Amino acid sequence: MLNKRPIFILGFQHGGTNIVLNLLRSHPEVCSPRGEIQEVFKGKGFPRRFKEPASVVLSKLWNYLPVLAAQRQDVFSLDLWEDRKALSKRAMQCIDKVLFDEKLKARGPTQNCYKSEGVRYTDEEIARSRLLSKNLGGLVCLSNDLARMYPDATFIALVRNGYAMCEGHIRRGVSLAKIAQDYERGCQRIIADSKKIPNYHIFRFEDLLESPRDVFEQIFGYAGLDVGQIRKVRLENKKTVGKDGGHTYTYEQDQEGLIWYPIEKFMDHFKADVNRNQIERLTRRQIEDISDIAKTSLEYFTYDKPRKP
Hints:
Elements: E1 7-11, H1 17-25, E2 30-31, H2 37-42, H3 54-71, H4 89-105, E3 114-116, E4 119-120, H5 123-128, E5 130-136, H6 143-149, E6 154-159, H7 162-171, H8 176-194, E7 200-204, H9 205-210, H10 212-223, E8 232-237, E9 239-241, E10 247-249, E11 257-262, H11 274-279, H12 284-293, H13 295-300
Parallel strand pairs: 1-5, 1-6, 2-5, 6-7
Antiparallel strand pairs: 3-4, 8-11, 9-10
Protein name: Sulfotransferase family protein
Pfam families: Sulfotransfer_3
Organism: Thiogranum longum
């Protein structure tokens, strides 16, 4: 395989995985392809609304065709919550090459442009870097295949309070039943895989907020990365939800972009009350429904049912 010792982040949309992604991408030996793993093969926004040039999306779909032909299955479907058909050797080689090539193409200002503040990567450094991929939703079920492809891979799963995470999806128009069911089966799959896949580790989003430095060092340790090579942490300035349901930028600058922070300050601007703000917007009925559907996982990760007045 072209990619050596890759790192895969597993979790849910709106579940905090971008924090882990940017922490790991702060290391000069780690680079990512253009987008999450399904976006690498199908483009951002496909099929509803393209979020990148149509030529880029069509090029990605063209590269995906050999995998579709070999597997006769949409391997990178976010909604496929089951094991994929065993990947053929041809499919594995194609997936590996596309991921490697896409890593080389990701040269935007918030991608593989800077290996540290003001210092750019060379093409050779990106080629030698370790692949970092984010696999969300039903793609957590792809881990067994990826572990067979890459026996030297590291898997970092991030789980967030299910009540808060479900609220984020409900607010965006997803049905409560669907997101709660997805949360339950996603968590159960993560738990099961952590018991049988080597170098597979689970972290809670809340522990990252409470003890960022400790979790930061644990993640890097499991990935075999030297924290000493990092002077500043790269983070993306994005909007987060406030108590009134409105969105504001996390950092001082009022626009999206890359921010470099000293390690000891990198969590200063994250909102520790983000879960509470979201949970408070749930109704008593919604809380009961989420609890009923995802009870096993919520209890496993010690997420207590919120009390409504």
